[in-house]
Please model this.
Amino acid sequence: MSLRHGVAAGLLVALATTASAQWLNHNDPKIPRTADGRPDLTAPPPRFADGRIDLSGVWMPDPKVTPGGVPVGQTLGEDPVIRLRTEDGTPFPLLPAAEAEYKERVRRGDQGPSSRCMPHTVVDVYLVPEPVKIVHTTGLTILLIEEYQHFRQIFTDGRTFPADMQPAWYGYSVGRWEGDEFVIDSAGFNSQGWLDLSPLTHSESLRITERFRRPNVGTLQMQATINDPSKFSRVWKTQTITFRLVPDADLVEYLCDNNTMPQLTAPH
Model:
């Protein structure tokens, strides 16, 4: 994997990290191959015995084909990122108070939670050049996030949201299949995360629905629906974010020890 970077206020900032390679270049027997032994990334997606599409693998966001992708890093040596957009490219439907807060944060140059070793959450975890590994088990799908070694649990055992949700960075998530789409509903977020790499904040009333599709072996797509009546005037959808499979590789250990910066505060 390439050198990792944190992102704050839309800008990549270097963080103190440690990393070590683990089982790279190990041929995955589940990936179809061409005659010369290379991964056949255009082959039809794998399916489970019951017909559901298998989303398993290590995935990297692809800014080259995702609307909002920045073609190059902000400074020399940095990887490109993706900037969050609405589905139709119109401005975020912020309520007046939320728009004033957003503009003030931009003016101040506020840095995102990741600059303090806090998580990129949903949706901005998909906007930075960091791999995410999807693992399916019975009744549970796990998203392993290489950056800072975070994870998400997506319960598919039929449970609903708990009556008392303690606010959390990644919230609480339940999943289901709708045809060939894997759908994740999430709620119970805290109010500290950002939706974008710019200071697009949310409240604890945020609810997100993510829809994942795998059109072929090498491609994963996700579109999110954002519902936060405390911040936005209407429910809205993001652009479709595309990921590319990283075949025959796995996650590496990636830690952060720069957790010394002050907490973010709302503008006065």
Q: What stands out?
A: The chain has one domain: 19-256. The radius of gyration is 18 Å. The chain is about 5% helix and 30% strand. The CA atoms of residues 33 and 144 lie 25 Å apart.
